[in-house]
Amino acid sequence: MTARLPRFLTYSLAATIPALGLAIGLGTAAGASTTAAAPAATQAAAARTAAKAAIEHLVIGQHSANHRVGSARSGAKGLTDVTSTNWSGYADTGSNFSKVSSSWTEPTPSCSGRTEQLAAFWVGIDGYASSSVEQDGTLIECYEGSTYQYSWWELYPTNDIQVVGESVAAGDKITASVVRSGSSYTMAVTDSTHSANSFSTTQTSSGDANSSAEWIAEAPSGSSGVYPLAKFSTWTASSDAVTEGSTAGTISSFTDDQITMDTSSGATEATPSALNSSGNSFSVTWDRS
What is the DSSP letter of 229? Predict the structure, then answer.
């Protein structure tokens, strides 16, 4: 990506191939059923492999264009309106951030047409005004008219995106967090609906800025620029918590920016709501790809 306020990351994603069921039966009818099912299963496996290959070099977490507009609003400490070509949500700015977390229900995607579309939902430390990012969350991919959903983590620039779960589905209950201790970062996603997508990993990275915390819905980028934003209706980030230094709080406890995703021509793609009265929840509404 080019000059930006925050920075996006590069990811290498992987997808699994579903296990093939075995038909057991007697006579010609059972044999015919098994033979007919094999091509469809093979096609589904090939489609997943192609979908995986299409997202091996994503860029997530970097702002290609980010412009401050307006000034701080009354009633929300330090809140400034910001536009971005690929982020929508909230970012806290300051120093020495050590924890960020959120919970959400995985949105329902609406995939149509043959154009590849993507939407990532994540929490993270750094990336808003630094070249390092520590983040994790979920990803929707629309590929050749089919939907694929993943859980993942990223520690940039140490490594590319790491996909852990490939069975995330609409309606799954997700909790994501990044916790820092010195130069160690523990990134965890819990999918309480489909536990195979859950993980916790601790990685070491030196010299990271720890200067921001984020709760973001994003249109990831590739070698050709920002992908069309997959249609997801609404993403609601709840129980949003953050720790800066020795102070734990919510989004509104610290200097926070509200980020709207706009196209380069100014058309709105995704709109964040105001924070709730507790300062720990908001929604992002999909407007267009």
Answer: B
